[in-house]
Amino acid sequence: MSDINRQPGVFPLSCAVQNYAWGKIGLDSEVAKLLASSDPLVQINTELPYAELWMGTHPKGDAIIVDNRITQKTLGQWIDDHPECLGSKVKDTFNGQLPFLFKVLSVNIALSIQAHPNKDLASRLHVLFPEHYPDTNHKPEMAIALTSFEGMCGFRPVEEIVAFLKNVPEFRTLIGNSAAEQLERSLGDDPRGATMALRACFTSMMKSEKKVFVDQLNMLVKRISEQVATGKDTSDSNGELLLRLHSQFPGDIGCFAIYFLNLVKLKPGQAMFLGANEPHAYLCGDCIECMACSDNTVRAGLTPKYIDVNTLCQMLNYTPAPARTKLFPSVLSSSDPCASLYNPPVPDFTVIRIEVPASMKKYSVASIDSASILLVIQGEATAASESALSDISLRRGSVLFISANESVSLDLCSQSGMLLFRACCLL
């Protein structure tokens, strides 16, 4: 078959960049660095935040196909015309749609205190408030650190929260003695009692009057600032994080969330998975992110966006657990010593981390029964596939779409090996 008539199954993409205000500025951003590396003609604005790189078919950032021999201009159009490229199981399960959105995030200041609804709640919220909840899908997501990465995730053990109630009088005042004592009595109680007490405490805080929480927050910031100025250790009141968040969002109720939520610190390659109803907020660093293709986010603090405190307090998973339990492990592939799988407990996506050592001059990206998106973080190679119209040069920042049941051969050009991330759907 001639190249003119052949349908390519592998092709490069140019992907959307989102310049949200919380992103890292200019070339401090991993997103900007990847963009500049992948296309030398791109001019990076040194004063602009580069927050997210979107790799997928989301209507707000459908990837552009970088091959003028292909009729379709975007990945979404290509998949609509060639749904078989998804793989038969994926196509049938997700109604001919790519089920995930693959991203790189570069976080300079905190994202909102938030959680994502399950499918049932997402459907109800969409009917009631379509302007705030634009679709009916759930939005589980996973973050894999590219640099040192910090986030808050899940409720702390009750013992830690009770310690803050003792050490931070402003926090206790905001919660109120009744709810605070209920939580203290729940220590050593059955898990249900602790969960109910935790719900009462968090709801009491989130629904407190603005003047009350602003006054208590100002008192706390003043006290911590004075302690820092005199060299006193403020770790028993989480002082460093409090001052950092208050400098970013002064007078925001979300500053008090640090006493409820775990602080999770990820090293490069470590991950956390955020299922439905899990309270969380990214704080700083660069990460790979993969999620179900949805825009549904319920927010309650550290944001200028729409806040829905009632929904958040009702929906959250109030099960307390240590920070270490929020780390999501990767598993070495049984068939590829270069590959590690981050396989969350949802059908929508899996992320594969591929680290090819410098000693390997050739590597084969394996065929799987799912469409996938491949991102180059480090290294250079020439990619070849039976269904590609021609060989494709890959470098740092390159993004490649791979149809289901297609393999890709890489001839490595760099002396430092390669680091790749591949998003797919392993049903």
From TrEMBL:
Residue stretches spanning the membrane: none
Positions of the Phosphomannose isomerase type I C-terminal domain: 341-382
Organism per entry: Pleurodeles waltl
Cofactor detail note: Binds 1 zinc ion per subunit.
GO BP terms, alphabetized: GDP-mannose biosynthetic process; mannose to fructose-6-phosphate catabolic process
Catalysis: reaction(s): D-mannose 6-phosphate = D-fructose 6-phosphate
Keywords: Acetylation, Cytoplasm, Isomerase, Metal-binding, Phosphoprotein, Zinc
Protein name stated in the entry: Mannose-6-phosphate isomerase
Active site: R299
PROSITE patterns hit by this protein: PMI_I_1, PMI_I_2
EC number(s) given by UniProt: 5.3.1.8
Requisite cofactors: Zn(2+)
Keyword Isomerase on entry: yes
Residues binding Zn(2+), per UniProt: Q114, H116, E141, H280
GO molecular-function terms, A-Z: mannose-6-phosphate isomerase activity; zinc ion binding
Family of this protein: Belongs to the mannose-6-phosphate isomerase type 1 family.
GO cellular component: cytosol
Cellular compartments annotated: Cytoplasm
Alphabetical list of CDD domains matching this protein: cupin_PMI_type_I_N (cd07011)
Stretches assigned to the Phosphomannose isomerase type I catalytic domain: 10-158
Residue ranges occupied by any Phosphomannose isomerase type I helical insertion domain in the UniProt entry: 174-261
Record's function text: Isomerase that catalyzes the interconversion of fructose-6-P and mannose-6-P and has a critical role in the supply of D-mannose derivatives required for many eukaryotic glycosylation reactions.
KW Zinc (keyword) present: yes
Top-level EC class: isomerase
Major localization class: cytoplasm
